[in-house]
Amino acid sequence: MAMRKLNTSAGILEVMGAPLSGTDLRAYVMSGGGVSLKNIHPRLRSKRCFLIFPISGSERKGLVSVEVKKKKGQYDMKLLAVDVAMASGPDQRLFLIGDEEEYRIGGGLISELRDPVVKALAAAKEFDARDELEDEEDAARELEEVEGNIGTRLKNLKEITLSSCYKVLNPL
Predict the structure, then answer these.
(1) Is domain 2-110 annotated with CATH 3.10.450?
(2) Arithmetic mean of pLDDT, 131-142
(3) Taking Cα atoms as reference points, which of 50, 151, 155 lies closest to residue 109?
(4) Which phi and psi (to 5°) does residue 30 adopt?
(5) Proportion of the chain in helix, strand, coil states, percent, rounded to 5
(6) pTM over 0.70
(7) More confident: 133 or 165
């Protein structure tokens, strides 16, 4: 639902570049739901979900913040914002739905979710770099093994060739 709105927003696509794609990394908090009593009458409380996830376009990357409220089986999006990483300076926050006040609701719950996701993204980059280094080390080790095997085979071939030449030159 959020990705559909983002991929159809001319402003977001202009800044980030089309197409936009998400990742498997997500953080969310659910609140509400359940039964409550109001004036002695039981009622179902609406559920609210705060969600944050990274996206990338052809030109820039960003972090999406979403707040959705489920009322009577329908989803009502209260907040849809993207923090776009800028080449220089701080991130730029673009609001498709909601505003800064909605972003700060719940004591800044969305911004509290943001920090661990940013750390996880930074760790993912570090893990990718480490994986590349390990792959290079593995390739070098495999090359050494192959070179060692070739050297051993050449030595064996040389011994066989010398032995064959000796037999030809010195028959019994």
Answers:
(1) yes
(2) 88
(3) 50
(4) -105, 140
(5) 50, 30, 20
(6) no
(7) 133
